[in-house]
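Repro:
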Amino acid sequence: METPLGNSYLEVNLTALRKNLEQILSELGPGRQLIPVLKDNMYGLGAGEMAKLCREYPQIGWVAVSQVREALELRGVIPGCEILVMGNTPSFQLDTAVAQGLTLSCGRLGMLEELAEAAKRTGKPAKFQLKIDLGLHRIGLEPEELPAWIEEYREFGPRLCLKGVYSHFSDAGNPALSRQQFARFQETLSALEAAGISVPMAHIAATASFEDFPEFSMDAVRIGRRLIMDKPGEAGGKIREAASWRSFITNLKPRKRGDILGYGGRCRLDRDCLVATVCAGYGDGLNQDLVRIGGPVLAGGKRCRLLACCMDQCMVDVTEAPGVRVGDEVTFFGYDREGNYLSSQEVAALVNSDEGCGLTTALSARVERIYTE
């Protein structure tokens, strides 16, 4: 592994990512598309590197991002791949997006006319997928708005290119609600078909719903978190955690019960202990709620307790790892160099974060990303 130049680094295991991709493709089986979701720099791991991996698998013809800028950053990496922009695109970005061949989400009345005008100005076909809102109430066309949208499509559709129709479950953990929303989505597709509108691809399942309800897979499945880690409570299953965040001990001092650490006197030691200063803090993405509850890290192969945190450094009780030295690594989540494991899902659950990918996404740009096989 290359020598890190930053004070902390995220090691991304490319072999694990490949195995995860292959596992997901095998679960999907023939006839269904995998749409890797690479938004927010692939949840902090690096969208460009993940896109390069996707290029190794000819059966992957689509990827998805959230914003036009993210899509443009990937266009040169995967020139032959369709890129779906899942978020609402501001009108002033439409010309650029259409000119670059991106597939935009259409989730409001009036957007088809704007897309048709962008196609006219750029001389390129405007590609889009229709987004249906089934209850998340974020973006998307309400099913009740479908008749008006069909009229718009009859007027502007000949100048556009419909690439698919999709939606998103509002609560994948609610089986009854998910089945109800799936039925409404199928009704929407039937209404489009009855109006003479051919749908090339329909998809509603994302990672969580795919794991619990594979029967909702339809033509394609959007997978984000499952590319990089298993579902909560199933660490060590068929999906391997692909990223490990590590930093370094820069100071070691025995401290007494009652000593105060960090700013504001918020941490007062409740026992004598050996305290390590580690050169990463909340400016690097360390969750301060995790520090407040004394969350775990790995040091010397042992689970040790976070004590205090500043922007650039944190303090850890390493009393249970007496062999540690200045310069040794501390692992905030993932695997240490000896293979000891601290699941990001476990750590995230301690602070009710958005699963383990909420931790990786929070890592700042100064956390170096290092890719290993």
